[in-house]
Amino acid sequence: MQTLLDRKLLVITGKGGVGKTTMAAALGLVAARHGKRTLIVELGQENRLPLLFGRDPTPQGSECALEERLSSITIDPDRALLEWLQVLGGRVSGRVLASSGTFQYFAAAAPGARELVSMVKIWRMTGGGQTRTRTGAHDLVVLDAPATGHALGLLGSPHTFGAIARVGPIAGQTRQVRELLESPAQSAYLAVALGTEMAVTEALELEQGLRARLGRGLEAVLVNQLLPRRFSAQELEQLAALERDGDGARERAAHGAGPGDAQRRAAVASAAAAARTVHDRARFQHNQLARLRRREFEVWGVPFMWGAELDLSGVKEITARLERRL
Fold it and tell me: What is the pLDDT of residues 310-323, one digit of tens each?
């Protein structure tokens, strides 16, 4: 039976700010631990993964070794398009081409050109157009895709641009990219969400967009930063009692009765109120998980990592949890 790690390409997307890069790093680590030579691709100008792994960032377009069998690379769609046009333009320098009105006109007039050229690069990284036995081949490419709307534009670019380029090398590559994206044996799609109404709604919209553009669905939804449900019904009643006791103590203190005892009871009541607030937030998050499960999504909960910031040790803790799901 084929597993998630047996694909050539994993695409990870979702609402902005939900932790897509963290999940891409964690899944890349899982794959590398399972013996897969894995490449994580970031799109844009940021190069975050080397810093997370304590490595010096490499120039854009160059791979950076993160750990054994795991590396990362950054693709800038504008630069990718410029390089492609340079190939078409022969000896025209990149500086001249980038400053010309022709380049700007083409980039604006050819819908999906940047996105398609980026996807062709990713297709090649999966072994597209080359033998899988070549030295340095990747067994798996994990794409840290843009947020949902831009990701759907990226994934739909072979269809969008294919309507323009019907013949020639780019047309052939477009068909190959479409095959990669539409084949369940070659690719899989994962959404990352928080336990919020907006993020879960966006995951549902992502599923609809994938089906409309590629005839595909989500393999799973990773719900990040989940809080645990700590209290039983009986414990919640006890917390409510402590809050009521604190209210009574504050009222007595206002009339000059037992100020020391009143302060202690008020502090306990404040702690109880804080605990109830966290419980209510956790309950809301798990209600959002239930929304996904009612739609028959595979849902993977990722717990909240306590700390000032998420470092590599936190990512590896997430990795261990995801590994158990795979």
Answer: 899 999 999 999 99
